[in-house]
Amino acid sequence: xxxxxxxxxxxxxxxxxxxxxxxxxxxxxxxxxxxxxxxxxxxxxxxxxxxxxxxxxxxxxxxxxxxxxxx
Length: 71
Prior knowledge:
The chain is mainly alpha-helical and 71 residues long. It is 87% helix and 0% strand. The N and C termini lie close together (5 Å). The mean pLDDT is 94.
């Protein structure tokens, strides 16, 4: 089952890249000096992407663990 390790690592890396993208976008939105409602809607979209990236990263880590345990 070692064929699960590399795709799992790739998924984890993609999720991690998504999380860092969300961090940079949130800092950029915060420093832009936007009004409260505009900032709130932008951050809500970023939070949705952040949760998706976290899910992808967790799925990748699960694949790695399963590949290691069964391999």
